[in-house]
Amino acid sequence: MSAKFFNDGFCEDQISFKKFQPFKFNQVFHKSDDDEVKETAQERALVEVASQKWNRGEQIYRPMQKKFMEKVDSIDSEAANEYAAGIANQHTKSAFDGTKGSVATQDIRSGINPNSGRFKGGQAEVSTKEAEATGENIGRSQVAQTEESATGMMNVVALGQGQSTKAQLGIAGLADSAATKSRNDAATAVNEAISKREGIGTVVGGAASYGSNNDWFTDTKTIPDFDSAQSTPDMAGLQGDSGYGYSGLQPRQQYA
Amino acid sequence: MGVADSEYAELTRKDWESYQTDFFPWEDKAVDFAMSEGTVDKALEKAEAGISRGHDNAVKSFDMDLAKYGVSETARESTTRKRQNNLSKTASVVSGLNKTRAHVQDLQQKVMAGDMAAGLSGSRLTEQ
Questions:
Q1: B112: closest CA of chain A, how far (Å)
Q2: Which residue of A has its CA nearest to B28?
Q3: Of A51, A65, A117, the CB nearest to B22
Q4: How far apart are CA A98 and CA A193, in angstroms?
Q5: Full residue range of the structural domain in which residue B7 is found
Q6: By CB neighbour count within 10 A (0-12 exposed, 13-18 middle, 19+ buried), where does A124 fall?
Q7: I need a surface site. Which of A195, B65, B73, B103 has the fewest CB within 10 A?
């Protein structure tokens, strides 16, 4: 049996489509004569859930957020800067104390008189390297504090927007970096001092030349690498990186 | 307007007020950090103080280091070493300040461009 076609392309079996009336957004269907649009159960449930999320955010997450802000505020404080400088100084001094001892031992074993200009010159040379390294490490620690503070500040801004935050080193991380840099600088200094005298190679391994090691912002972990920085789990708890953090709980994202 | 609607509107207002209270000051700080000349100046000041202090600390301990071996510098040796240390300190300060300036200016760019976490480009200030 062949279907009968109309001029507009519909066949008889499809005629019901022609009768379909699309929904108009401004069309209001009334269950009664009352003009007011009734709230649906879903609308009421959404508001109830949003209220509960808001309350939970206020009770639990907002205090945590305040604490985080306070911590970020303290990163670049005078006390924190003093602490970072002290750590950098201490690590450098400790690394170079060993270096000066190594150079002195080497000189004495080679028969150099400690009261000679050669011996004192060797110590002076290492001392100058120590001064350069200490100054550099302390100066760098101060700049690193500024950078940490900026990262923290932007993390707070990101938190408000419900975005992922960047990893921060923290003071412990800075101290660790200062120690690594000091060890490298000290190792380099002893190598230079001894090899100049004896014409020999490396005594303490693991360090590049002082020149290449002298770059403030590229050869250590002191400054966070922003390209490779990842969100940390403790951050995720606050800002929702694990899928349902503070920002996700708030109705804020509805209009963000 | 139904109860749910008005409650949701109230929540929206409260949320925005809370955002203003908590986060506007931080957005202002970020803008100030990125735009102000003072950011670089402050970093330079801190770096210079740190470098000088570190240098001086290390130099001061030299006499004690020699004393461990029962020797001391002659006046001439001391003068020579101090001159060398001063030259070295000046070079360290100049080099450190140049690097600090470049680095902090980069940092300001990053904050403006949004490379650090949200950055100002992702801020509500620009969304509004």
A1: 10
A2: A157
A3: A65
A4: 13
A5: 3-120
A6: buried
A7: A195
Alpha carbon distance A56, A147 (integer Å): 33
Tell whether A83 lies on the interface with B, counting CB pairs under 8 A.
Answer: no
pLDDT tens digits, one per residue of A187-236:
666 566 555 554 333 333 333 233 334 455 544 433 333 333 333 333 33
pTM of the model: 0.65
| Residue of A89, A159, A164 lying closest to B54 (CB–CB) | A89
Q: Evaluate whether A194 touches A203 at the Cβ level (below 8 Å).
A: yes
Per-residue b or e along A208-246, where b marks 16 or more CB atoms closer than 10 Å to that residue's CB: eebeebbebbeebebbbebeebebeeebbebbbbeeebb
Domain annotation covers residue B43: yes
Instruction: Assess if residue B127 is contained within a domain.
Output: no
Q: Which residues of A touch B53 (CB under 8 A)?
A: 85, 89, 135, 138
Contact criterion met (CB < 8 Å) for B58 and A39 = no
User: Does B128 map to a domain?
Assistant: no
Going by the DSSP 8-state scheme, the letter that residue A128 receives in this structure is: H
As for how many domains chain B has, the answer is 1
CA A56 to chain CA centroid, Å, is 27
Give the list of residues 6+ apart from residue A236 with CB closer than 8 angstroms, or none.
A242, A245
B48: chain A residues, CB-CB within 8 Å: 139
| pLDDT for residue B90 is more than 90 | yes
Nearest to A156 by CA among A145, A146, A166: A166
Kindly state the average pLDDT of the residues B98-126.
Answer: 73
* A36 vs A185: CA distance, rounded Å: 78
- pLDDT computed for residue B40 by the predictor: 95
Q: How far is A186 from chain B (nearest CA, A)?
A: 13
Contacts of B127 in chain A (CB under 8 A): 256
ipTM: 0.82
